[in-house]
Every structure is written in structure tokens, then in C-alpha cells.
Amino acid sequence: MAEVDHLLPVFIPAMRLLSESMPSIKFVIPAASDKLYAHIEAGLAEAELGDLATNISLLSGKSQHCMAISDTVLLASGTASLEAALLAKPMVVAYKMSRFSYAIISRMLTTEYVALPNLLTRKPYVPEFIQQAATPEALASALLTLLTDEDIYQETISAFAELTEQLAQGADLKAAAAVADLIDNALD
């Protein structure tokens, strides 16, 4: 719920900006539970979407299906970013939390990337926007680049296909190494 409260007010204006550049674009929002569905639905209603409402579909569950049918994905950092990578979906990651939580976490973790695909590939294939950097303009711009720059789009898909292959050949070791690196960085 807190994640939705922090990100929906940024995601909606980003969707509005994208729809201005690409009027035929459609947005699909999966809700992990009925409670979350009602919460997102209320947030969308509060936003007074106007014409944008016709371009948004809110679904109960089906997050993998939503990712699979999408050209790009906008999501919060977390395991969903790894799911999107395994589906070879170019994505943009945003994350916002309370200032207090961010002040604590940012002092504990010193890592170059936060998105799991970037941590595993050790390259920034996923644009990341954390806290104040997660603005509607930044998110819309990054998504528009992924949707319109065929070279970047294909490079990302190829990198994710390679990541999927690597994970299939030793997923436990690769994941453990990534976690160990995070822990090492937090202790430094």
C-alpha cells in the first residue's frame, strides 16, 4: 500500500506525458490482491484522469501476463524487475519511500544499482529513478526512449535473454553472489 501511495502520484502524470507523445498507448496495471486493487482504483479516481482513463486497464492479479503482453514495463524496484527481465521486457524502475526510511537505507547500502537485472548484469540496462529522481518527466522520457529507440530496445532484450540463459546455468550461485555483494557493500 505504501509503495502505491508513493509511486502512483508519479506514475499517473508519467502516463499522461507518455499519452501526449503516443496517443494510442495503452496502460495495464495489475493489482496483486483485491485490497490493493481497491486502493489503486481509489487512487486513479482521485487523480481525475479525464481522457487518460480510457487508456488504463486495472486488473486483479495477472502481473506476469501483464508484463508478457507489454512492450515496456514501469515498476517499483524488487523481484518484479527480475520477472520482467526473465520475460525479456525492457523496463524502467522507480522507487520512492518515506524520507526517514530512505535516510536509513541509503546509509546502509552503497551499491551502484538497485534493480536486480542491473545488479546481475552489472550494467545499467534498466533505467533507475530513486526518490527525488523519480519524476513523471524522467520516467516518461526513459519509457519513450525504450519505446522509440529500436537499438536500445533490442540491446536490452538481448541482454535479458543472455541473463536468463546464465541464470538457468547456475541461478543459485549467481543470485548468492549478487546478495553477497550487496551485503559486502552495506558493511563497507
Short description:
This protein has about 190 residues and is mostly helical.
What does this structure look like?
The chain has helices at 2-21, 34-46, 63-69, 79-86, 99-108, 116-121, 136-148, 150-168, 171-187; strands spanning 27-31, 56-60, 73-76, 91-95, 128-130. The chain has one domain (2-187): Rossmann fold (3-Layer(aba) Sandwich), CATH 3.40.50.2000. Strands 3-4-5 form a three-stranded parallel β-sheet, sandwiched between helices. Strands 1-2 form a two-stranded parallel ribbon. With 188 residues, the chain is mostly helical. The relative contact order is 0.14. It has nine helices and five strands, in the order αβαβαβαβααβααα. It is globular and about 50 Å long.
Strand-helix topology:
Layout: H1 2-21, E1 27-31, H2 34-46, E2 56-60, H3 63-69, E3 73-76, H4 79-86, E4 91-95, H5 99-108, H6 116-121, E5 128-130, H7 136-148, H8 150-168, H9 171-187
Parallel strand pairs: 1-2, 3-4, 4-5
**SSE order:** HEHEHEHEHHEHHH
Distance from N terminus to C terminus (CA atoms, Å) equals 32 Å
CATH architecture: 3-Layer(aba) Sandwich
Largest sheet: 3 strands, parallel
**Structural category:** mainly alpha
Q: Which CATH top level class fits?
A: Alpha Beta
β-strand number: 5
Strand line-up of the largest beta sheet: 3-4-5
- Our count of domains comes out at 1
| Strand-residue proportion | 5-15%
The CATH topology is given as Rossmann fold
